[in-house]
Amino acid sequence: MSDTTRKASPRRQVRVGALAAALTASMALLCCTGGAGAFFLTELGGETDQMINAGALNCGTENTVDVTGDMPRFSEYGERQLRNAAIIIKVGQDMELPPRAWVIAVATAMQESGLRNLANSTVAGSNDIPNEGVGWDHDSLGLFQQRAGWGTVRQRMDPAYAARKFYEKLVKVDNWQQLPLTVAAQKVQISAFPDAYAKHEELASRIVDALAGGAARTVQISGRKVCDAAAGGEIAASGWTAPIPGGVGSGFRTAERPKHNGVDIAAPKETKIRAAASGRVLVARCDPDNRERLSCDEDGWPNKGGCGWFVDMLHAGGYITRYCHMLHKPLVVPGQMVEAGEVIGEVGSSGNSSGPHLHYEVHVNEDRSSRGAINPVPFMKERGAPLKGAA
């Protein structure tokens, strides 16, 4: 992702109230399975729902990290690297910074050093200090590959010191909590590869959850960490938010609708649809209906086919989100970098639909076909952005 991300569009408060409740009650009647003309919306995959890490479902707000205890297991990193991540998080806790800062810091260290405390073959004395490898980039040292201006050799190779210096610079970045992770990290690190941090956000969030009791699922509200509250435009520490504040009606691949590869979220027309996470727009267009017509500038009907006006976005971790049945042409274009919470369109009823709502999908492994679709309900809950009305 780029540090030239567009500013988030202004958000308008939408009154859902009784109307949303009424829409929720009627959501079972809404149809949006996609038309035969859609190039990927009509296939039925045989995949089961994505397995959710049970430990991450514990959403604690006061879990102090134990840097000396047993470390969780991650296939990507060993025990020593996870202990370094624990130190980074513990320093953030001691500084009373919100979990979003911990996710940014862990992701940054993942990119800079692979969570290893690195010496440097060109820096005298660094190899005599306990380390987990030897680098060679300029005079960079430690978890964050900090150069001489950040401190002495011994200081930069002290994981706690290095983390504290990173946080001290991060909190001086204007609006850092709302920035995409890669932009916030780059403003601190000034890296030659500014887009590289984004790919680590998903795994960094899972590491924070595992080490700090689900902290990546929290939202900072009035100075307090609140669990599972990113449902009305707030951004969770994981970097995710609910796309609209409505309630889920028709569910994922039910017995009645086995080809329904997402969920339907009730909302009035013109409700602003937000990007669920920072990412790049893959598709933003009108989906053909069953008769190959591009007729999205009108309300649809059951069995019309097609997703109407829709958007596909690619996010860190290879996840894709899909937003269907928009009222008009999306506000974003393919290739555009979009921030979490940025408005990308409005709720409508175009395509295969019998009333205004958002059809929302999540796909894994960068697979836009139905084979990559998973149930958005547990996925969003695990990221602290539960879909309202969903169990």
Question: What this model shows, in words?
Answer:
The chain is elongated, with a radius of gyration of 22 Å. The chain is built from eight helices and 13 strands. The chain folds into two domains: 79-227, no CATH class; 247-382, Glucose Permease (Domain IIA) (Distorted Sandwich), CATH 2.70.70.10. It is α+β, with helices and mostly antiparallel strands. Helix content is 21%, strand content 15%. Helix 3 (99-113) packs across helix 6 (181-189) and helix 3 packs across helix 7. The longest helix is centred in the N-terminal third of the chain and has 16 residues, at 79-94. The chain starts with 16 loop residues before the first helix and ends in a 9-residue tail after the last helix. Strands 5, 7, 8, 9, 10, 12 and 13 form a seven-stranded antiparallel sheet that branches. Strands 1-2 form a two-stranded parallel ribbon. The model is unreliable at 1-31 and 33-57 (pLDDT under 50). Pfam families: Peptidase_M23 (PF01551). Residues 259-367 form the M23ase beta-sheet core domain. GO terms for molecular function: metalloendopeptidase activity. This is Murein DD-endopeptidase MepM/ murein hydrolase activator NlpD. Keywords: Hydrolase.
Topology:
Blueprint: H1 17-25, H2 79-94, H3 99-113, E1 119-120, E2 134-135, H4 153-156, H5 159-170, H6 181-189, H7 201-211, E3 218-221, E4 224-227, E5 263-266, E6 272-274, E7 279-286, E8 309-315, E9 319-326, E10 337-338, E11 343-346, E12 357-363, E13 373-374, H8 376-382
Parallel strand pairs: 1-2
Antiparallel strand pairs: 3-4, 5-12, 6-11, 7-8, 7-10, 8-9, 9-12, 12-13
Helix pairs in contact: 2-3, 2-5, 3-6, 3-7
